[in-house]
């Protein structure tokens, strides 16, 4: 069995997931990288992690598919025999006005963004239980509690993530597993490139944020790292909003 702590970060070939994986590696964790499409990007991240002297297991899996989830966790168990941290970061979604949404858009978005957290957390809890507990952090966004244009299905899926975070926190507490979420304001990641109104969003966020600047990927990672630390062990089922104060404005 691996004696070093192990962290799984879904959707970790880029953006917040990649930055979190690298930070956890720097903190001494062996890493499970998960990606859905970009093998070359995932391999680049894996090489960076290995250069830090950490072990890496890279797994291609669409976390919207429960069979793929089970297969991924079987590989983690076989390779490391443990899991200490699970960051539910993988996200996708169709961004359209309500009247243009179809059932397939709903199913795709809810499966990857919401269902994945539930079924990954179940598998993660089994592995964490072997070593006396662990930490689960999911990534959400302000669209879960506020209206954002073209964001209906994604916003609803993130609201489900935050509700699931509360339920998981209570039911997994007897296993000494802490479950929380980090919700970001507008963060300029690759995902934002898919927004039709990206430039407008960024300018608006920079101008209106009380903190005087946009949220950076590092701001998000700093909060994730706090929640996986022992210092946060009495924070359970909470969604920490990292938005420079913009959600406080009417």
From TrEMBL:
NCBIfam families linked to this entry: PRK08063.1 (NF005975)
Documented EC number(s): 1.3.1.104
Protein name, per record: Enoyl-[acyl-carrier-protein] reductase FabL
Native organism taxonomy: Bacteria, Bacillati, Bacillota, Bacilli, Bacillales
Keyword Oxidoreductase tagged: yes
Gene3D superfamilies from the UniProt entry: NAD(P)-binding Rossmann-like Domain
Domain of life, per lineage: Bacteria
Keywords carried by this UniProt record: Oxidoreductase
GO molecular function, one term: enoyl-[acyl-carrier-protein] reductase (NADPH) activity
Subunit structure: Homotetramer.
Entries under PANTHER family matching the protein: OXIDOREDUCTASE, SHORT-CHAIN DEHYDROGENASE/REDUCTASE FAMILY (AFU_ORTHOLOGUE AFUA_5G02870) (PTHR43639), SHORT-CHAIN DEHYDROGENASE_REDUCTASE FAMILY PROTEIN (PTHR43639:SF1)
Tagged with keyword Transcription: no
Organism: Cytobacillus stercorigallinarum
Family stated for the protein in its record: Belongs to the short-chain dehydrogenases/reductases (SDR) family.
Signal peptide: none
InterPro entries per record: NAD(P)-bd_dom_sf, SDR_fam
């Amino acid at each position: 069995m691996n004696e070093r702590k192990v962290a799984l970060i879904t959707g970790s070939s880029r953006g917040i997931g990649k930055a979190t994986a690298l930070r956890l590696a720097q903190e001494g964790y062996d890493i499970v990288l998960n990606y859905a499409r970009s093998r070359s990007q995932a391999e680049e991240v894996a090489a960076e992690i290995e250069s830090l002297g950490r072990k890496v297991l890279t797994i291609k899996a669409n976390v919207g598919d429960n069979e793929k989830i089970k297969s991924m966790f079987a590989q983690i168990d076989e390779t490391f025999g443990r899991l200490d941290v699970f960051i539910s970061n993988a996200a996708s979604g169709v961004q359209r006005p309500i009247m243009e949404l179809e059932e397939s858009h709903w199913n795709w978005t809810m499966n990857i963004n919401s269902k994945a957290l539930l079924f990954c957390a179940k598998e993660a809890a089994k592995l964490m239980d072997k070593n006396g507990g662990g930490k689960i952090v999911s990534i959400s966004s302000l669209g879960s509690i506020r209206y954002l244009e073209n964001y209906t299905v994604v916003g609803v899926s993130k609201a489900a993530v935050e509700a699931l975070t509360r339920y998981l926190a209570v039911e997994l507490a007897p296993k000494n597993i802490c479950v929380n979420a980090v919700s970001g304001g507008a963060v300029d990641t690759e995902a934002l490139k898919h927004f039709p109104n990206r430039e407008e969003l960024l300018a608006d966020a920079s101008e209106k944020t009380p903190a005087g600047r946009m949220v950076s990927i590092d701001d998000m990672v700093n909060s994730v790292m706090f929640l996986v630390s022992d210092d946060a062990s009495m924070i359970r089922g909470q969604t920490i909003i990292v938005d420079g104060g913009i959600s406080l404005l009417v």
